[in-house]
Design brief:
about 120 residues, alpha/beta, Rossmann fold, 4 helices, 5 strands, flat
Length: about 120
C-alpha cells in the first residue's frame, strides 16, 4: 500500500463537514463560518470548471518541471477573498499563484506572460 494522498481542498472539506457553523476565517470585521467558506469556494471552483479550467494532464504523464493544470493569477489585496480564491482554485484543480498588487505594468506583463496564466481573479473597485 502506497502513501496516503490528500489535498488542501480535501482537508478543508473534511474539517468543514465536522464543524460547519463554527467561525473559520476572520478578517477585520468579516467572519465566515466553515459552511460559508465552503459554499463560496465550491462556487468559485464550479465557475472555473465551467470556464474550462482545471487539470488537463495528470502528474504521472508530465516531466518534473511541467504543469498539467491551468494557471490562475490571484491579483487581490489582503482579505478573505485571497484565501477563497486559493481554496477555490485547489478545488478546481487549478494552479493558483500570487500576483503582488504593488507590481507596476512592466512587472505585471512579464509575470502574466511568463506564467502562462489562463485566468485571473482580481479586485474590482
Amino acid at each position: 500500500m502506497g502513501p496516503v494522498q490528500f489535498s488542501v481542498a480535501d482537508v478543508h472539506e473534511a474539517i468543514a463537514a465536522t464543524r460547519p457553523d463554527e467561525v473559520c476565517l476572520v478578517h477585520r470585521d468579516r467572519r465566515l463560518t466553515w459552511a460559508e467558506l465552503t459554499d463560496r469556494t465550491r462556487r468559485l471552483a464550479n465557475h472555473l470548471i465551467e470556464q474550462g479550467l482545471g487539470c488537463h494532464t495528470e502528474r504521472g504523464q508530465l516531466q518534473g518541471h511541467e504543469s498539467g493544470q491551468d494557471h490562475l493569477a490571484i491579483y487581490l489585496h489582503n482579505g478573505t477573498e485571497y484565501l477563497e480564491a486559493m481554496l477555490g482554485a485547489f478545488k478546481a484543480r487549478v494552479a493558483p499563484f500570487n500576483v503582488n498588487y504593488r507590481y507596476v505594468a512592466e512587472e505585471l506583463h512579464y509575470l502574466l506572460s511568463d506564467s502562462l496564466a489562463t485566468a485571473a481573479v482580481v479586485h474590482s473597485r
